[in-house]
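<context>
A single protein, sequence plus fold
<entry> Chain with its tokenised backbone below
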Amino acid sequence: MARSLRSNVAQANKKKLRENTFHPYEAARLERLSAKQKKIADQPKSEDESKDAGPDDVDMAEGQPEDNVSAKRVWNKLTLCRRFGS
């Protein structure tokens, strides 16, 4: 018969693997990700990134935002119909 995963030997082996193999790897990975995020967070934002320019911010003088919004609504309805078959 096959050895159960609930056996004490199997549990002890898994514990050793977690502690000696996977834990150092995961800790190093988290350290790298943390350093990368900190590096990105410490960079000063440029003017382009600091602006809140969305797709609706289009030539307010010409009245295009309404057209853009209605076109977005039609597009969203079409994609929903394609996804759900309505």
Q: What stands out?
A: Helices lie at 8-42, 47-50, 64-84. Residues 8-43+59-84 form one domain. The mean pLDDT is 75. The chain has one domain: 8-43+59-84.
